[in-house]
Amino acid sequence: MPQLASDLSQQVNQRLNQVGPSGIREVAQKFSTIPGLIQLTLGEPDMNVPEHVKNAAIKSIQDNDSHYSPQKGTMYLREGIHHYLMESQGLNYDPETEIIATVGATEAICASLFTILNPGDKVVIPTPAFALYFPLVTIAGATTVQVDTSNSHFILTPERLEKVLDEEGDSVKAVLLNYPGNPTGVEYPQSTIEGLAKVIADHHLFVIADEIYSELTYGVEHYSIANVIPERTILINGLSKSHAMTGYRMGYLAGPAQLIASATKMHAFMVTSPSNPAQAAGAEALHNGLQDPVAMRKVYQKRRDFVQKSMDEMGLSMATPSGAFYAFVKIPASYGKDDVKFAYDLAEQGKVGGVPGSAFGAGGEGYVRFSYAASDADLAEAMKRLKAFIASKG
User: Fold this and answer.
1) Which CATH architecture group holds 66-290?
2) Which residue, 46, 89, 175, 377, shows the most beta carbons closer than 10 Å to its own?
3) Torsion sign, CA atoms 380, 213, 320, 220
4) Domain with CATH 3.90.1150.10 in the chain
5) How far, in Å, CA of 175 to CA of 216, rounded?
6) Phi/psi of residue 103, each to 5°?
7) Which PANTHER family does the UniProt entry name for this protein (predicted)?
Protein backbone atom coordinates (compact mmCIF):
# COMPACT_ATOMS: atom_id res chain seq x y z
CA MET A 1 0.00 0.00 0.00
CA PRO A 2 1.36 3.46 -0.88
CA GLN A 3 2.78 5.78 1.76
CA LEU A 4 2.54 9.52 1.16
CA ALA A 5 5.93 10.93 0.16
CA SER A 6 7.57 12.57 3.17
CA ASP A 7 8.19 15.80 1.25
CA LEU A 8 4.41 16.08 0.65
CA SER A 9 3.24 15.39 4.20
CA GLN A 10 2.82 19.09 5.04
CA GLN A 11 1.65 20.19 1.59
CA VAL A 12 -2.08 19.65 2.08
CA ASN A 13 -4.67 22.32 2.86
CA GLN A 14 -3.52 23.72 6.20
CA ARG A 15 -6.98 25.02 7.06
CA LEU A 16 -8.29 21.48 6.77
CA ASN A 17 -5.53 20.36 9.13
CA GLN A 18 -6.80 22.87 11.70
CA VAL A 19 -10.09 21.03 12.15
CA GLY A 20 -10.83 17.58 13.48
CA PRO A 21 -13.38 15.05 12.27
CA SER A 22 -17.05 15.35 13.21
CA GLY A 23 -17.32 14.90 16.97
CA ILE A 24 -20.75 13.33 16.55
CA ARG A 25 -19.55 10.75 14.03
CA GLU A 26 -16.37 10.07 15.99
CA VAL A 27 -18.32 9.28 19.15
CA ALA A 28 -20.87 7.18 17.26
CA GLN A 29 -18.08 5.17 15.65
CA LYS A 30 -16.28 4.54 18.94
CA PHE A 31 -19.48 3.59 20.73
CA SER A 32 -20.50 1.21 17.93
CA THR A 33 -17.80 -1.20 19.09
CA ILE A 34 -19.34 -1.54 22.58
CA PRO A 35 -21.39 -4.77 22.70
CA GLY A 36 -25.07 -4.33 23.54
CA LEU A 37 -24.99 -0.53 23.53
CA ILE A 38 -28.14 1.42 22.54
CA GLN A 39 -27.07 4.22 20.20
CA LEU A 40 -28.85 7.52 20.77
CA THR A 41 -26.07 9.47 19.08
CA LEU A 42 -27.09 10.19 15.49
CA GLY A 43 -29.99 12.29 14.24
CA GLU A 44 -31.20 9.40 12.11
CA PRO A 45 -34.97 8.89 11.84
CA ASP A 46 -35.93 5.27 12.50
CA MET A 47 -38.98 5.57 10.23
CA ASN A 48 -39.34 4.57 6.60
CA VAL A 49 -39.57 6.79 3.56
CA PRO A 50 -43.22 7.08 2.42
CA GLU A 51 -44.12 4.51 -0.25
CA HIS A 52 -45.15 7.04 -2.89
CA VAL A 53 -41.78 8.76 -2.50
CA LYS A 54 -39.85 5.49 -2.84
CA ASN A 55 -41.89 4.61 -5.92
CA ALA A 56 -40.92 7.88 -7.58
CA ALA A 57 -37.23 7.02 -7.16
CA ILE A 58 -37.82 3.51 -8.52
CA LYS A 59 -39.66 4.88 -11.55
CA SER A 60 -36.80 7.28 -12.24
CA ILE A 61 -34.41 4.32 -12.45
CA GLN A 62 -36.78 2.22 -14.52
CA ASP A 63 -37.29 5.12 -16.94
CA ASN A 64 -33.51 5.27 -17.50
CA ASP A 65 -33.37 8.75 -16.03
CA SER A 66 -29.59 8.43 -15.89
CA HIS A 67 -28.19 11.58 -17.48
CA TYR A 68 -27.04 14.86 -15.99
CA SER A 69 -29.85 17.04 -14.76
CA PRO A 70 -29.66 20.84 -14.83
CA GLN A 71 -27.05 21.92 -12.29
CA LYS A 72 -29.59 23.61 -10.04
CA GLY A 73 -31.77 20.49 -10.15
CA THR A 74 -34.71 19.47 -12.29
CA MET A 75 -37.34 22.12 -12.82
CA TYR A 76 -40.01 19.79 -11.43
CA LEU A 77 -38.05 19.48 -8.17
CA ARG A 78 -37.43 23.21 -7.93
CA GLU A 79 -41.13 23.79 -8.57
CA GLY A 80 -41.80 21.36 -5.72
CA ILE A 81 -39.51 23.35 -3.42
CA HIS A 82 -41.33 26.53 -4.47
CA HIS A 83 -44.67 24.81 -3.79
CA TYR A 84 -43.61 23.62 -0.34
CA LEU A 85 -42.18 26.97 0.78
CA MET A 86 -45.25 28.82 -0.44
CA GLU A 87 -47.76 26.40 1.08
CA SER A 88 -46.03 25.87 4.42
CA GLN A 89 -44.46 29.25 5.13
CA GLY A 90 -45.81 31.75 2.62
CA LEU A 91 -42.37 32.25 1.04
CA ASN A 92 -42.22 32.99 -2.67
CA TYR A 93 -39.01 31.90 -4.44
CA ASP A 94 -38.69 31.74 -8.22
CA PRO A 95 -37.84 28.13 -9.20
CA GLU A 96 -35.75 29.36 -12.14
CA THR A 97 -33.48 31.88 -10.44
CA GLU A 98 -33.82 31.61 -6.64
CA ILE A 99 -33.58 27.90 -5.76
CA ILE A 100 -30.81 25.28 -5.91
CA ALA A 101 -31.32 21.57 -5.20
CA THR A 102 -28.30 20.27 -3.29
CA VAL A 103 -26.81 17.01 -2.08
CA GLY A 104 -28.37 17.23 1.36
CA ALA A 105 -28.60 20.31 3.56
CA THR A 106 -24.91 19.69 4.32
CA GLU A 107 -23.89 20.69 0.81
CA ALA A 108 -26.23 23.66 0.96
CA ILE A 109 -24.48 24.87 4.12
CA CYS A 110 -21.06 24.35 2.55
CA ALA A 111 -21.97 26.05 -0.73
CA SER A 112 -23.51 29.00 1.13
CA LEU A 113 -20.51 29.60 3.37
CA PHE A 114 -17.99 29.21 0.56
CA THR A 115 -20.03 31.64 -1.57
CA ILE A 116 -20.16 34.54 0.87
CA LEU A 117 -17.02 34.23 3.01
CA ASN A 118 -13.58 35.73 2.45
CA PRO A 119 -10.47 35.32 4.63
CA GLY A 120 -10.80 37.50 7.72
CA ASP A 121 -14.60 37.45 7.80
CA LYS A 122 -16.45 36.42 10.94
CA VAL A 123 -19.63 34.38 11.34
CA VAL A 124 -21.72 34.65 14.52
CA ILE A 125 -23.00 31.24 15.62
CA PRO A 126 -25.19 30.80 18.72
CA THR A 127 -23.97 27.76 20.63
CA PRO A 128 -24.60 24.94 21.23
CA ALA A 129 -24.89 24.40 17.47
CA PHE A 130 -24.59 21.70 14.86
CA ALA A 131 -20.90 20.79 14.90
CA LEU A 132 -20.48 20.93 11.10
CA TYR A 133 -20.69 24.73 11.03
CA PHE A 134 -17.40 25.41 12.80
CA PRO A 135 -14.98 23.50 10.54
CA LEU A 136 -16.64 24.76 7.35
CA VAL A 137 -16.21 28.38 8.44
CA THR A 138 -12.56 27.66 9.26
CA ILE A 139 -11.87 25.95 5.92
CA ALA A 140 -13.38 28.98 4.17
CA GLY A 141 -10.72 31.11 5.88
CA ALA A 142 -13.15 32.87 8.19
CA THR A 143 -13.58 32.85 11.98
CA THR A 144 -16.49 31.71 14.10
CA VAL A 145 -17.77 33.92 16.88
CA GLN A 146 -19.43 31.48 19.25
CA VAL A 147 -22.13 32.98 21.43
CA ASP A 148 -22.96 30.84 24.47
CA THR A 149 -26.75 30.79 24.85
CA SER A 150 -26.92 28.28 27.70
CA ASN A 151 -27.99 31.04 30.13
CA SER A 152 -30.79 32.36 27.89
CA HIS A 153 -32.78 29.17 27.33
CA PHE A 154 -30.58 28.35 24.31
CA ILE A 155 -31.88 31.32 22.34
CA LEU A 156 -29.84 34.19 20.90
CA THR A 157 -31.68 37.35 21.86
CA PRO A 158 -31.61 40.51 19.74
CA GLU A 159 -29.99 42.38 22.64
CA ARG A 160 -27.20 39.83 22.92
CA LEU A 161 -26.60 39.86 19.18
CA GLU A 162 -26.39 43.65 19.19
CA LYS A 163 -23.78 43.51 21.96
CA VAL A 164 -21.71 40.85 20.16
CA LEU A 165 -21.75 42.81 16.90
CA ASP A 166 -20.64 45.98 18.68
CA GLU A 167 -17.74 44.03 20.19
CA GLU A 168 -16.68 42.20 17.02
CA GLY A 169 -16.80 45.12 14.60
CA ASP A 170 -17.29 45.37 10.87
CA SER A 171 -15.56 42.07 10.03
CA VAL A 172 -18.74 40.13 10.88
CA LYS A 173 -20.26 38.97 7.59
CA ALA A 174 -23.13 36.73 8.66
CA VAL A 175 -25.20 35.22 11.46
CA LEU A 176 -25.95 31.49 11.25
CA LEU A 177 -29.23 30.39 12.83
CA ASN A 178 -30.50 26.82 13.19
CA TYR A 179 -34.01 26.45 14.55
CA PRO A 180 -35.58 24.27 15.72
CA GLY A 181 -32.07 23.65 16.90
CA ASN A 182 -29.67 20.75 16.92
CA PRO A 183 -28.76 19.77 19.66
CA THR A 184 -31.40 21.46 21.86
CA GLY A 185 -34.66 21.16 19.90
CA VAL A 186 -35.44 24.75 20.88
CA GLU A 187 -37.58 26.79 18.47
CA TYR A 188 -37.30 30.57 18.23
CA PRO A 189 -40.48 32.61 18.86
CA GLN A 190 -41.64 34.87 16.05
CA SER A 191 -41.03 37.99 18.14
CA THR A 192 -37.39 36.99 18.69
CA ILE A 193 -36.91 36.27 14.98
CA GLU A 194 -38.31 39.69 14.13
CA GLY A 195 -35.98 41.33 16.64
CA LEU A 196 -32.94 39.46 15.31
CA ALA A 197 -33.91 40.40 11.75
CA LYS A 198 -33.86 44.09 12.64
CA VAL A 199 -30.39 43.84 14.18
CA ILE A 200 -29.08 41.86 11.19
CA ALA A 201 -30.48 44.43 8.75
CA ASP A 202 -29.16 47.37 10.78
CA HIS A 203 -25.66 45.86 10.63
CA HIS A 204 -25.87 44.99 6.90
CA LEU A 205 -25.33 41.25 7.38
CA PHE A 206 -26.33 37.98 5.75
CA VAL A 207 -28.29 35.42 7.75
CA ILE A 208 -27.92 31.74 6.96
CA ALA A 209 -31.09 30.07 8.22
CA ASP A 210 -30.74 26.30 8.59
CA GLU A 211 -34.36 25.22 8.97
CA ILE A 212 -33.95 21.49 8.32
CA TYR A 213 -36.21 20.63 11.30
CA SER A 214 -38.97 23.11 10.39
CA GLU A 215 -41.54 20.33 9.83
CA LEU A 216 -40.87 18.76 13.23
CA THR A 217 -42.32 21.18 15.77
CA TYR A 218 -44.56 20.46 18.75
CA GLY A 219 -47.26 22.90 19.76
CA VAL A 220 -45.63 25.85 17.99
CA GLU A 221 -45.57 27.11 14.42
CA HIS A 222 -42.23 27.52 12.69
CA TYR A 223 -41.59 31.08 11.52
CA SER A 224 -38.80 31.62 9.00
CA ILE A 225 -36.64 34.72 9.20
CA ALA A 226 -37.02 34.83 5.41
CA ASN A 227 -40.50 36.23 6.07
CA VAL A 228 -38.87 39.35 7.49
CA ILE A 229 -35.59 39.90 5.62
CA PRO A 230 -35.72 37.75 2.47
CA GLU A 231 -33.21 40.07 0.79
CA ARG A 232 -30.56 39.02 3.37
CA THR A 233 -31.55 35.41 4.00
CA ILE A 234 -29.94 32.25 2.67
CA LEU A 235 -32.60 29.66 3.47
CA ILE A 236 -31.48 26.05 3.86
CA ASN A 237 -33.75 23.03 4.19
CA GLY A 238 -34.15 19.48 2.96
CA LEU A 239 -35.99 16.19 3.21
CA SER A 240 -33.74 14.16 5.51
CA LYS A 241 -35.75 14.83 8.65
CA SER A 242 -39.26 15.60 7.39
CA HIS A 243 -39.50 12.47 5.21
CA ALA A 244 -36.83 10.24 6.83
CA MET A 245 -34.74 10.52 3.66
CA THR A 246 -31.25 10.90 5.17
CA GLY A 247 -29.69 8.45 2.72
CA TYR A 248 -31.22 10.14 -0.31
CA ARG A 249 -29.15 13.28 0.36
CA MET A 250 -31.78 15.73 -0.84
CA GLY A 251 -31.52 19.33 0.31
CA TYR A 252 -31.88 22.81 -1.10
CA LEU A 253 -31.09 26.46 -0.62
CA ALA A 254 -33.11 29.51 -1.60
CA GLY A 255 -32.32 33.19 -1.68
CA PRO A 256 -32.13 36.33 -3.80
CA ALA A 257 -31.35 35.66 -7.47
CA GLN A 258 -28.01 37.51 -7.49
CA LEU A 259 -26.74 35.46 -4.57
CA ILE A 260 -28.11 32.19 -5.98
CA ALA A 261 -26.24 32.84 -9.24
CA SER A 262 -22.95 32.86 -7.29
CA ALA A 263 -23.94 29.92 -5.09
CA THR A 264 -24.83 27.93 -8.21
CA LYS A 265 -21.22 28.19 -9.38
CA MET A 266 -19.92 26.86 -6.07
CA HIS A 267 -22.52 24.10 -6.05
CA ALA A 268 -21.61 23.10 -9.61
CA PHE A 269 -17.89 23.02 -8.81
CA MET A 270 -18.53 20.68 -5.89
CA VAL A 271 -21.15 18.21 -7.15
CA THR A 272 -22.23 19.12 -10.71
CA SER A 273 -25.82 18.13 -9.86
CA PRO A 274 -27.74 15.86 -7.46
CA SER A 275 -28.63 12.30 -8.47
CA ASN A 276 -31.75 11.88 -10.58
CA PRO A 277 -33.54 9.20 -8.49
CA ALA A 278 -33.10 11.33 -5.36
CA GLN A 279 -34.47 14.36 -7.18
CA ALA A 280 -37.48 12.39 -8.40
CA ALA A 281 -38.17 11.24 -4.86
CA GLY A 282 -37.72 14.75 -3.49
CA ALA A 283 -40.06 16.23 -6.08
CA GLU A 284 -42.74 13.67 -5.23
CA ALA A 285 -42.40 14.42 -1.51
CA LEU A 286 -42.70 18.17 -2.05
CA HIS A 287 -45.52 18.11 -4.60
CA ASN A 288 -47.64 15.33 -3.10
CA GLY A 289 -46.35 14.56 0.39
CA LEU A 290 -46.79 17.72 2.43
CA GLN A 291 -48.89 15.76 4.93
CA ASP A 292 -46.33 12.94 5.29
CA PRO A 293 -44.51 14.56 8.26
CA VAL A 294 -47.73 14.85 10.30
CA ALA A 295 -47.74 11.22 11.47
CA MET A 296 -44.00 11.30 12.13
CA ARG A 297 -44.38 14.47 14.16
CA LYS A 298 -46.95 12.80 16.42
CA VAL A 299 -44.62 9.87 17.05
CA TYR A 300 -41.69 12.16 17.89
CA GLN A 301 -43.82 14.26 20.21
CA LYS A 302 -44.90 11.14 22.10
CA ARG A 303 -41.27 10.08 22.42
CA ARG A 304 -40.25 13.55 23.52
CA ASP A 305 -42.85 13.48 26.28
CA PHE A 306 -41.63 10.06 27.41
CA VAL A 307 -37.99 11.16 27.52
CA GLN A 308 -38.89 14.41 29.29
CA LYS A 309 -40.87 12.51 31.93
CA SER A 310 -38.01 10.03 32.38
CA MET A 311 -35.48 12.82 32.86
CA ASP A 312 -37.72 14.54 35.38
CA GLU A 313 -38.01 11.32 37.36
CA MET A 314 -34.22 10.96 37.38
CA GLY A 315 -33.73 14.54 38.51
CA LEU A 316 -31.96 15.50 35.27
CA SER A 317 -32.80 18.87 33.75
CA MET A 318 -33.13 19.39 30.02
CA ALA A 319 -34.23 22.03 27.58
CA THR A 320 -37.83 21.19 26.66
CA PRO A 321 -37.66 20.53 22.91
CA SER A 322 -40.32 22.32 20.88
CA GLY A 323 -38.92 20.80 17.71
CA ALA A 324 -36.45 18.33 16.14
CA PHE A 325 -35.83 15.05 18.00
CA TYR A 326 -33.11 15.68 20.56
CA ALA A 327 -32.96 15.80 24.34
CA PHE A 328 -30.15 18.08 25.54
CA VAL A 329 -29.63 17.01 29.11
CA LYS A 330 -27.55 18.59 31.88
CA ILE A 331 -25.17 15.98 33.27
CA PRO A 332 -25.17 15.12 37.00
CA ALA A 333 -23.42 17.59 39.29
CA SER A 334 -20.92 14.91 40.34
CA TYR A 335 -19.34 15.16 36.87
CA GLY A 336 -19.02 18.93 37.00
CA LYS A 337 -18.88 20.05 33.37
CA ASP A 338 -16.97 17.02 32.11
CA ASP A 339 -19.53 15.89 29.57
CA VAL A 340 -16.95 13.79 27.70
CA LYS A 341 -16.24 11.63 30.74
CA PHE A 342 -19.95 11.32 31.48
CA ALA A 343 -20.75 10.23 27.93
CA TYR A 344 -17.95 7.66 27.85
CA ASP A 345 -18.79 6.31 31.31
CA LEU A 346 -22.44 6.01 30.33
CA ALA A 347 -21.53 4.18 27.13
CA GLU A 348 -19.05 1.78 28.71
CA GLN A 349 -20.84 1.16 32.00
CA GLY A 350 -24.49 1.95 31.27
CA LYS A 351 -24.55 0.79 27.63
CA VAL A 352 -26.28 3.96 26.35
CA GLY A 353 -24.69 6.19 23.71
CA GLY A 354 -25.08 9.97 23.78
CA VAL A 355 -22.98 12.81 22.33
CA PRO A 356 -20.98 15.04 24.71
CA GLY A 357 -22.46 18.54 24.63
CA SER A 358 -19.08 20.18 24.14
CA ALA A 359 -19.05 18.74 20.60
CA PHE A 360 -21.61 21.46 19.80
CA GLY A 361 -19.50 24.40 20.96
CA ALA A 362 -18.92 26.26 24.20
CA GLY A 363 -22.61 26.56 25.02
CA GLY A 364 -22.90 22.78 25.18
CA GLU A 365 -20.33 22.10 27.87
CA GLY A 366 -21.78 20.12 30.76
CA TYR A 367 -24.58 18.57 28.69
CA VAL A 368 -25.17 15.41 26.69
CA ARG A 369 -27.37 15.01 23.62
CA PHE A 370 -29.65 12.02 23.19
CA SER A 371 -31.59 11.47 19.97
CA TYR A 372 -35.12 10.17 20.44
CA ALA A 373 -35.37 9.29 16.75
CA ALA A 374 -35.15 5.70 17.92
CA SER A 375 -37.72 2.96 18.44
CA ASP A 376 -40.02 3.08 21.46
CA ALA A 377 -38.49 -0.18 22.71
CA ASP A 378 -34.93 1.17 22.46
CA LEU A 379 -35.90 4.41 24.18
CA ALA A 380 -37.62 2.55 27.03
CA GLU A 381 -34.59 0.34 27.57
CA ALA A 382 -32.19 3.28 27.25
CA MET A 383 -34.06 5.26 29.92
CA LYS A 384 -34.07 2.19 32.19
CA ARG A 385 -30.32 1.83 31.77
CA LEU A 386 -29.69 5.54 32.25
CA LYS A 387 -31.69 5.48 35.49
CA ALA A 388 -29.65 2.54 36.77
CA PHE A 389 -26.39 4.26 35.79
CA ILE A 390 -27.35 7.50 37.55
CA ALA A 391 -28.38 5.55 40.66
CA SER A 392 -25.04 3.70 40.68
CA LYS A 393 -23.21 7.03 40.90
CA GLY A 394 -25.11 7.79 44.08
Assistant:
1) 3-Layer(aba) Sandwich (3.40)
2) 175
3) negative
4) 6-48+292-392
5) 23
6) -85, 85
7) AMINOTRANSFERASE, ASPARTATE AMINOTRANSFERASE
pTM: predicted TM-score of the whole model, two decimal places: 0.93
Element at 163 (helix H, strand E): helix 158-168
Q: Could you tell me if 310 and 324 are in contact, meaning their C-beta atoms sit under 8 angstroms apart?
A: no
Location of each CATH 3.40.640.10 domain in the chain: 66-290
H helices of 248-361, in order, are 257-271, 276-288, 292-314, 339-345
- Please state, in angstroms and rounded to a whole number, the distance separating the CA atoms of residues 353 and 347: 5
Rounded to whole angstroms, how far apart are CA atoms 369 and 321?
12
Say which amino acid occupies 330: K
Contact present, 111 and 263 (Cβ < 8 Å): yes
The predicted pLDDT at position 394 comes to 65
Name beta bridge partners: 352.
38
- Residue 43's contacts (CB-CB under 8 Å, 6 or more residues apart) are 182, 241, 324, 325, 326, 371, 373
